[in-house]
Write a structure and sequence with these properties.
It contains 10 helices and 18 strands. By secondary structure, the chain is of the alpha+beta class.
Length: 445
């Protein structure tokens, strides 16, 4: 099972090439097919779900050389028309990712090539609708892109409880009677509220990501697929697939969004009209519980309901083994990026690309991103191995300085590109280095 097939954002190392690129790396006939499929999806919806059409500017990007094929002209006149499409090269200053980007006077749904040509048509259509939604959510729907610290989902209990919740959600989606669906929904809400009882900050932090990626993925499933059977099958598959992801910290909402959304469609067809991100009462579990008129969760029933979804304790045993492996990995990263000598870089206006399914939280210190492309005012850091620690306090990123060569700006598993006016010099701790503005005072003196 490939992680990319589970509709997870992918990290792409930026490769800056010359300007003499041949604009033929993205097959134009295939690009036209993708644009046609996107148009079919958004035209079929015709603004019914959100009161606003999802049709709009699309930009397909080859991550190897930054060539692009678009479905329309750009506002700044940078693209050249070739038949029914428009071509050009995305500047090194622009982000490369499955994302929304404002470039050359136009707001685009940006998609990395060649994934749109995947053979799984359902996955392609869901992802297209997902990314088309992201383009309109902030400006047109006023749904903020929020983020939360969901490191509790990397703990044994946090992960175990969300997997129990997912099994109950799958049972609810596939229930043969309304009563069975109601029972399984109540179980899912019970497991979620037990997680919130153990981790008091979890409710707000999970809401943040579910109001962003969860709603977008629900939209992808709802608009990208045509029948209720197709949607339920897809949502159930996601609930199973995401249980194999190494880290759920930044990816869990891709599974919960469609599941809760489809259940809410059955329980309260008008639920989406009143949806507003990050408002009191807009959590999925609260909305579903209210729609089904469920009583408050009975924690005294937790053990009995747990046994229904974890027969023989196999899931807990699996997650316990994973916890032991994770502790060894945490110890390795702590020794390398906290106790060992490091090169730090300030974070003022960072932008970054990463694999959300691989993150490793280090308690209150911060989070390790095993691979990442990070940009800030000082330049670009590309980490291919070894990890980068994004610290909470102070607000800096850190990579190991062991083996770092200031002449080539290469370290063990990473490379730096510094912008003019920035230098590397010793920091306050012996052996540490820091990226600093050349005009700032030397912190080691």
């Amino acid at each position: 099972m490939k992680l990319r097939q589970m509709r997870l954002p992918m990290v792409i190392a930026l490769i800056v090439l010359g300007s003499s690129l041949a604009l033929a790396n993205i097959d134009h006939s295939q690009a036209e097919f993708i644009f046609q499929q996107a148009n079919i999806i958004c035209t079929r919806d015709d603004g019914a779900l959100w009161g606003r059409t999802l049709c709009g500017p699309m930009l397909l990007v080859d991550p190897d050389d930054r060539t692009v094929v678009a479905n329309q002209a750009d506002g700044g006149g940078m693209l050249v028309r070739m038949g029914s499409v428009f071509t050009g090269v995305l500047p090194p200053s622009e982000e490369i990712s499955d994302t929304t980007v404002v470039w050359s006077g136009t707001r685009w749904s940006e998609l990395l090539w060649p994934w749109p040509m995947r053979e799984d048509a359902d996955m392609r259509n869901v992802t297209l609708a997902h990314e088309l939604f992201h383009r309109i959510e902030q400006d047109d729907l006023h749904i903020e892109k929020l983020d939360g610290d969901n490191s509790h989902l990397d703990s044994l209990e946090g992960r175990y409880l969300i997997e129990l919740e997912w099994r109950a959600l799958a049972a609810a989606l596939q229930a043969s009677t309304p009563e069975n669906r109601r029972t399984a929904s109540a179980d899912a809400i019970l497991f979620r509220n037990e997680r919130y009882r153990l981790f008091p900050k979890a409710a707000a932090n999970e809401l943040a990501l579910e109001s962003n990626e969860g709603i977008a993925e629900y939209t992808g499933v709802k608009i990208g697929l045509q029948s209720s059977q197709e949607r339920i099958r897809y949502a159930v598959r996601d609930l199973s697939a995401y249980s194999e992801v190494p880290s759920l910290v930044r990816s869990f909402a891709y599974a919960t969004g469609p599941a809760y959304g489809l259940l809410l469609d059955q329980a309260d067809p008008n639920w989406l009209r009143s949806f507003r991100a990050n408002q009191l009462g807009s959590r999925f579990d609260q909305r579903l519980g209210a729609a089904l008129h469920l009583p408050p969760p009975e924690f005294s029933q937790l053990q009995a309901r747990e046994s229904e979804y974890d027969v023989g304790g196999k899931l807990r045993a699996h997650e316990t083994d994973r916890e032991h492996q994770k502790r060894a990995l945490v110890a390795e990263f702590r020794a390398r990026l906290v106790d060992g000598t490091v090169l730090t870089m300030p974070l003022s206006k960072p932008s970054f690309q990463f694999k959300p399914q691989t993150l490793v939280p280090l308690d209150e210190i911060g989070t390790v991103y095993p691979t990442m492309t990070l940009k800030d005012s000082w330049g670009t850091l590309t980490v291919e191995s070894g990890g980068v620690l994004m610290r909470k306090q102070p607000n800096v990123a850190a990579v190991s300085s062991v083996g770092f060569d200031p002449a080539t700006l290469r370290g063990q598993g990473f490379i730096l590109i510094l912008n003019p006016g920035w230098i590397i010099r010793p920091s306050t701790r012996k052996g540490d280095l820091v990226i600093a503005n050349a005009g700032d005072a030397n912190p080691s003196r």
